[in-house]
Design brief:
The structure is a single chain. The protein is α+β, with helices and mostly antiparallel strands. Among the domains are: 5-153, DNA methylase specificity domains (Adenine-n6-DNA-methyltransferase TaqI, Chain A, domain 2, Alpha-Beta Complex), CATH 3.90.220.20; 218-358, DNA methylase specificity domains (Adenine-n6-DNA-methyltransferase TaqI, Chain A, domain 2), CATH 3.90.220.20. The chain is 34% helix and 21% strand. It is built from 11 helices and 22 strands. It has helices spanning 9-12, 114-122, 124-133, 144-147, 157-197, 200-206, 282-285, 319-325, 327-335, 348-352, 361-401, and strands spanning 5-8, 13-17, 26-34, 51-53, 62-63, 68-71, 73-74, 85-87, 95-97, 101-106, 140-141, 151-154, 218-221, 226-228, 239-243, 259-262, 267-269, 274-277, 288-290, 300-302, 306-311, 355-358. The strands form 7 sheets. The chain has a 4-stranded antiparallel β-sheet with strand order 2-10-6-8.
Length: 415
């Protein structure tokens, strides 16, 4: 790469490992503690995953907003997290990092833009170097002295700024769309709880005594509104979209990644269905998703550990997903798991018979008019985020190899 400088991570930065924390001080009032739990595989920060820590620490364990942090440990055999970076977000008064990660401190005077270095560390070339240096089987780790040998390619400082600015603009838009999707989902859940779970507005408008159902409502079960594991035709060997357990999110409705393969066995579903993980620990972790990525009448397949929840006629498309995310519903599912330790599952029958108040059709229609457009907005948001992510993943290696040059002036991503 003409005009680029080959160097190593150790030549441009010091790697400072974080705190070997004690479990007894976790979730106690104190500092914010960041570790592997906040790490997006490949790079990036997961908000809301840090933990409070009330124990002792040293000044070297403290990081500041904007600091670059690097994963030196990984619990996955494929090394999905190892070598991944994140930038410390703003907001916390005092933030610590764990010994599973290290703060990357640039040496004074080195011609390195920190955000360019962040993107270099997200590259497959960099992360492959970390995987090659890792020791261990169940827990894979790279010592800071070994991480110092990871190669870094540096273009001119103006080009570093341009690359960081361009990719940063794409990532900022993805983050903004992710926040918008979260807001839309929060609104949908709030409306669902108010109208169906607590039925506040119906009680108030009808002058119903406390504890009584509004006029037209009745006591029933989830099966009155939701069909569980409905039959869908799909021949063995027929190629279809396939969703495995890893693709099902613990938060939010959007299924992350899908593949295609010949059908063997497992759950079968259509657009508009909700997938509910029935096995430990996936159930406890909250794995559920709303299918929104198929063509009309296209049949897809998934894990045998999914329970499929489909809205009955006249029921809003988003209602089964809202039920699946209700803490009391999930607690009921967990309490009714059966089987041996480590392989416990909740039977679909336990979900069918969960007691709930059943509203009349006009209330369901009004609910659908509010929440279904919200979930449609989340789906559209997710599609655009996928396009932007694919754009980023396509351009990143070309930018970091010098194959694609950007103007050195401040550059932004396409709107």
């Amino acid at each position: 790469m003409t005009g680029w400088q080959a160097t190593t991570l150790g030549e441009i930065a010091d790697l400072r490992k974080g705190l070997s924390y004690k479990g007894e001080f976790l979730d106690k009032p104190g500092s914010l503690l960041l570790g592997l739990g906040v790490m997006r595989p490949g790079g990036g920060y997961l908000p809301g995953k840090g933990r409070a820590y009330g124990g002792p620490f040293k000044e070297r364990h403290v990081v500041e907003p904007g600091d670059l942090v690097l994963a030196l440990t990984d619990l996955t055999q494929e090394g999905r997290v190892l070598g991944s970076p994140f930038l410390v977000p703003p907001g916390a008064d005092e933030t610590l990092i764990t010994h599973h990660v290290a703060a990357v401190r640039l040496r004074p005077g080195v011609p390195v833009h920190p955000e360019y270095l962040y993107y270099w560390l997200t590259s497959e070339a960099s992360r492959a170097s970390f995987r090659g240096l890792a020791n261990g089987t169940t827990v894979r780790a790279v010592a800071p002295r070994d991480a110092a040998f990871v190669e870094v390619q540096l273009p001119s400082m103006p080009q570093q700024r341009a690359i960081a600015g361009f990719l940063g603009a794409i990532d900022a838009k993805i983050r903004a769309m992710r926040r918008m999707s979260q807001t839309l989902e929060d609104i949908a859940h709030a409306v669902f709880r108010a109208r169906i779970v607590d039925f506040d507005s119906q009680v108030e408008s009808a002058g119903t005594p406390p504890g009584a159902l509004p006029p037209g409502w009745r006591t029933g079960t989830t099966e009155d509104l939701i069909e569980f594991n409905p039959r869908v035709p799909l021949r063995k060997g027929e190629e279809s979209v396939y969703v495995d357990m890893k693709a099902l999110p613990t938060e939010g409705p959007s299924v992350r990644d899908v593949a295609r393969r010949g059908y063997k066995s497992g759950a079968r579903f259509l657009n508009g269905d909700t997938l509910f993980a029935r096995i430990t620990p996936c159930l406890e972790n909250g794995k559920s998703g709303l299918v929104d990525f198929l063509a009309p009448q296209e049949v897809a397949a998934g894990s045998t550990e999914f329970i499929v929840m489909r809205p009955r006629e006249g029921v809003p498309r988003g209602l089964p997903y809202c039920v699946a995310r209700l803490p009391v519903f999930r607690a009921h599912a967990i309490a009714n798991m059966t089987g041996t330790s480590g392989r416990q599952r909740v039977p679909a029958e336990s979900l069918r018979t969960w007691s709930m108040a059943i509203p009349p059709p006009p209330v369901l229609q009004e609910l659908g008019e509010v929440i279904d457009p919200l979930f449609a907005g989340i789906s559209a948001n997710m599609q655009e985020r996928r396009v932007l992510t694919e754009l980023r993943e396509t351009l990143l290696p070309r930018l970091l190899s010098g194959e694609l040059q950007l103007p050195d002036a401040a550059t932004t991503a396409p709107a």
